[in-house]
Design a protein that fits this description.
The protein is built from 14 helices and 17 strands. It has 487 residues and is α/β, with parallel strands linked by helices. The structure holds nicotinamide-adenine-dinucleotide.
Length: 487
């Protein structure tokens, strides 16, 4: 095993929140146990409610037991890990409350300092200001920003500019946890290390591309938060756009962060802006109504306590066109929704039909080749090919077979996306994080659609919880003579 020692102080703001307990602490526990984090590194939780270090360690332990798999939690390992845990009491609204953090950090003034803002973005500016007032930002400081960074271009600019008053762009790590998934990174490996795909990856050979991120859960207790965003802002503008960039980008000149991000931003700038008639015919927005999920009746989006009238979409589907040489005439169909039939995230690259078939039924039995990259619930890559059915039948008969491209995993522990991303921040490698110009280009494109929706250019549709979304999404792709992969 490659062991890299990384010495740093990591401060988690909002450190007793859901994300910190469910994702960040488990990731740090694994990084520390697997030798990716120097044991002298400190993990400092900034929490609003005062607590002793011992109480904090007990709380972290119980949360790790809850969120790690049975086999991953180990008393002995935790006893080592807990020596790295520290807690300070901070109320973001109270500048004076940073004295404890200052006292702790100043014992190692030259260490790399990672500030993880696991809080609502409204607090980003004020946390930065307090860190600056207390002189806690050094050249070795980095800051990790959780989504959502704004709800449109203007509000994202306000948040980014506040942080940029105190940190340089090179110190800012805007996280998109989809990019931490191994299979997502494998898109680059697949495309840029195999000769095989190189000549096929363009409009001459690819018919269209589908990107689906479907969740079976609803908004649960987060209605208030979700209703300010909706599917377009919460999923499409960031996660689906990032996946689209990785599939569509040109080969970068190297793997360094700016080369990769330069290529991604070119894709975002090549997205065809939508006219009013494009919004009408190429976008679908919908809300889920009551239905059933995993055999149980579930309420609709507009039902339940604390719910108000709302025009926020829980489902979005779009046909996206990229205006450049490689993708001329190749549609990208995107869709994302809550309370869908099943949790399923995948990218499907559908190749064109063969030019002429010599087989029975004039080729009707030949399915177009597909490369299916599954991200959730299972991570896998599958190439769908045609193959002869073995046997002595007079007419040669074909069947579709799946070539699995998965690497056998010889690891006892498969790292979570947050583990990969936290390690990259520790190593100061921003390749998998979004640069300011990427965020802005994605918002610029999405804002046009969101404005069109707010002007009711396209009506809000409805779908029953536990289904594949509204029929309008099926029509969106059927209009072009195609269908969704799972139909
Ligand atoms: P959360 O509400 O559970 O946690 C936020 C934490 O901030 C809480 O512990 C709260 O006590 C603390 N806090 C709030 N006001 C404070 C103040 N004035 N002073 C000090 N502390 C204060 O939220 P979360 O789910 O952990 O999400 C954190 C951020 O990460 C949000 O921006 C969210 O959108 C984003 N995010 C969360 C998830 C997730 O799975 N939970 C996933 C992706 C992104």
């Amino acid at each position: 095993m490659e062991i890299i020692e990384n010495l740093c102080d990591i401060t988690i703001f909002g450190g007793h929140g859901d994300l910190a307990f469910r994702k960040l602490m488990p990731a740090l526990y694994h990084l520390s146990n697997n030798g990716y984090l120097d044991e002298q590194s400190r993990i400092i939780t900034a929490a609003r409610v005062p607590m002793s270090n011992e109480e904090h360690c007990d709380l972290v332990k119980s949360k790790l037991q809850e969120f790690l798999s049975d086999t991953a939690f180990d008393e002995e390992k935790f006893d080592r890990f807990k020596k790295q845990l520290h807690i300070v009491t901070i109320n973001f609204m109270d500048n004076e409350s940073y004295s404890g953090l200052e006292a702790l950090l100043s014992t190692h003034p030259d260490r790399d300092r990672i500030n993880y803002f696991s809080t609502a973005p409204d607090f980003f500016g004020m946390i930065c200001k307090s860190l600056s007032d207390w002189k806690l930002i050094t050249a070795q400081s980095r800051v990790v920003l959780e989504k959502p960074i704004g709800r449109d271009l203007d509000s994202s600019r306000v948040i980014n500019m506040e942080v940029l008053k105190y940190f340089n762009e090179s110190q800012i790590y805007r996280i998109d946890h989809y990019l931490g998934k191994d299979t997502v990174q494998n898109i680059m490996a697949l495309r840029f290390s195999n000769r095989f795909f190189m000549p096929l990856w363009d409009a001459n050979n690819i018919d269209h591309i589908q990107i689906t991120v479907a969740e079976s859960v609803g908004v649960e207790g987060r209605w208030g938060y979700y209703d300010d965003y909706g599917a377009m802002r919460d999923m499409v503008q960031n996660h689906l756009m990032q996946l689209l960039c990785l599939v569509a980008m040109e080969p970068p000149c190297s793997l360094d962060a700016d080369s990769v991000r330069d290529e991604k931003v070119k894709v975002l700038r090549s997205l065809r802006p939508m006219s009013a008639s494009d919004i009408e015919f190429k976008t679908v927005r919908a809300q889920y109504a009551a239905g059933s999920s995993e055999g149980e009746a579930v309420p609709g989006y507009l039902e339940g306590d604390g719910v108000e009238e709302s025009t926020t979409e829980t489902f979005a589907a779009l046909r996206v066109d990229i205006d450049n040489w490689r993708w001329k005439g190749v549609p990208f169909y995107l869709r994302s929704g809550k309370r869908m039939q099943k949790r399923n995230s995948e990218i499907v690259i559908q190749f064109k039909e063969i030019p002429h078939s010599i087989f029975v039924n004039k080729g009707k039995c030949i399915s177009q080749n597909k490369l299916v990259i599954s991200l959730q619930p299972k991570e896998s890559i599958q190439l769908q090919l045609m193959n002869k059915i073995p046997g002595l039948s007079e007419q040669m008969r074909l069947q579709q077979v799946e070539l699995e491209l998965n690497t056998p995993l010889n690891m006892s522990h498969k790292p979570d996306a947050y583990e990969r991303l936290l390690l990259d921040v520790i190593r100061a490698n921003p390749t998998l994080f979004m640069r300011l110009d990427e965020v802005e280009a994605a918002w610029k494109w999405a804002d046009v659609i969101l404005d069109g929706w707010s002007e009711e250019i396209v009506p809000m549709k409805s779908y029953s919880a536990g289904t594949d979304g509204p029929s309008a999404a099926i029509q969106l792709i059927a209009r072009d003579g195609r269908s969704w992969h799972d139909e």
